[in-house]
Amino acid sequence: MKLLEEILTHNEQFVDSKAYEKYQRGKLPNKKLVIVSCMDTRLVELLPKAMNVRNGDVKIVKTAGAVVSHPFGSIMRSILVAIYELGAEEVCIVGHYDCGMASLESEGIMNKMKDRGIQKETLNTLNYSGVELEQFLQGFSSVEDSVIQSVSTVNNHPLLPEGIPVHGLIIDPETGKLDKVIDGY
To answer: Whose CA is closest to 32, among 78, 72, 92, 121?
Structure first.
């Protein structure tokens, strides 16, 4: 069975048995917090448990490395929507140790793109068009520095309302232990 068929078969059973009822909550976050976290598979269940958040408590935005890389990109837009439209009053950037973005090098990923059929000419066209692919695809060398940079990007955003604390944490993906990098208060 293909993955999509497996998902849809499960979903049909999920809905028919009304298993969704135990997850029903309002759309506003009870704890008035938006979390930016890495998309690492180890954090899917661990992060909420380690932070004592349940369904309905927070807004979680997932992105590679928990990086807020562009002040006017989709991650920052999601943070602003969570604040202005959904009642979030605090932001927490949560990076993690052993992050794949820490070892990501743009040259390696561009080689993998070429191996999967992306033409060198396409990469060249993007570069000549002003898209800085090497910067766009580059990881980071320090998760601490990355969290600090992302907190700074959010904190210094011209549309962030005054008084919104922006915290920075790092989680251990093996144990769930949280290390404080920046206390936004």
So the answer is: 92
